[in-house]
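Quick check before the chapter quiz. The format below is the same one you will see on the exam, so make sure you can read both the input and the output lines.
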Amino acid sequence: MGTEGCRHIVDAIDLAVRERVPIIGLWHSGGGARLHEGVHALDAVGEVFAAMIRASGRVPQISVVLGPAAGGAAYGPALTDIVIMGPAGRVFVTGPEVVKSVTGEQVDMEHLGGPEAHGRRSGVVHIVTETEAAANDKARELTALLARPGRFSPVDLPVDGADLRALLPARSHLAYDVKPLANAVLDEPMIELHSKWAPNHRDRSGPARQTYCRGSRQQPAAAGRLPGRHLRGEGGPVRTHV
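Here is the expected output.
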């Protein structure tokens, strides 16, 4: 990442904020700052991250990781709202050789920062796809969804004549699947985030009344289960006291 390239990225982010449109970042073969430019490149990379932080909460930011995003580039996807990773996507700060020299552990790039590491274990990646084309398609779907924010009243949600109470168990203490409820109130099929990282927690997005709607809650059918690999939950850090 050189000074000139970073300047164009900053300009594009600032333009997206002014125009109120989503930002999509395609990460592939990214490393840190360009070495021969020295401290100037380091400053330029910092300017990119500063622009992303300025845009945070103002316009949606989506990262599509299609190849290695290593070194300083690893921080970029982590600063965005939604991260989509294709099969060749890799995100890590230090590579396998550095890990081996410091810890003695032998690990390849896929296990260090691939779809399994970040889609199931760390939770950095929200959506994992089987192909690069599928990753791009998901980015298009999310962009179309997030680009039309608005307001609506829950009482106006269309349910196509469905009785939502019929989708709930007769007794409130019984477990049930929340998916049919979400499908009933959305206009189109939902997009599920973190499906592998938090299988007992449903985080879904979709259009309702032609505007963006997102629901996030504990899956009642999995209530009481806390996978050991999850270090944080819906309400914040989870600590176990013995």
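If your answer matched, good. The chain is about 35% helix and 20% strand.
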